[in-house]
Amino acid sequence: MEAFINHHQYNLIREQVKLISDSYAKSNSHDVTSAIKALAAERVFNQFEELTPLQKDILSPISMLSDSKEAEVFLNSLESVIIPFPQISEAGIKKLFKKVKKLKVPANIKEETLHCSYIGWNDYGASKKYLIVEHHGKLIGVAGEFNRIQDKGVCTICHRISDVGLFMNQKKASSDGTFIKRGNYICQDSEWCNDHLTDRSKLTEFIEWLY
Ligand SMILES: [Zn+2]
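Above are the sequence and the zinc ion SMILES. Below is the predicted complex in structure-token form.
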């Protein structure tokens, strides 16, 4: 079976499954739980433009879950059909950040198959954050200055309240070769951010604005 679920879509499925499990845990009435299940299934199916009958079969157990154990089995059954992030070698990563000298690449990024919508890591010593994103069908690297802030804030990418920092990068102005500085608040912890991202358009908008 070919993978067909993007990471952010899986996050939404997981959230909806949790709503169903919580409803059973709270011993809501049958009607309430049925309504939550129907709504959850609708949200899950609506995020796909098109599904084959086989893909529908894989997702449809969401309407029949009756306890947290079944919920877990259902989520586990989806793991093999999540589209992994494109694999990239250390040399490939360095190519994406040609201008950065002494780039430190975390080991898991170059060695593991990653399930995420984007790759992000921090180099606090240099006050930098690095993002790798698939943009218009190819991987791009965006390096920026990154400084943590004391208070919690809303992340521009996942739109959740979390420990954020100000990410700033330089974008080339259209014609005269000058640079403009742009930035916004994003999660310090990119893994956490990835696990809470359910709408990829926010990530795309952010990258388009920066790149
Ligand atoms: Zn975030």
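Residues 7-81 form a domain with the Monooxygenase fold (CATH 1.20.1280.250).
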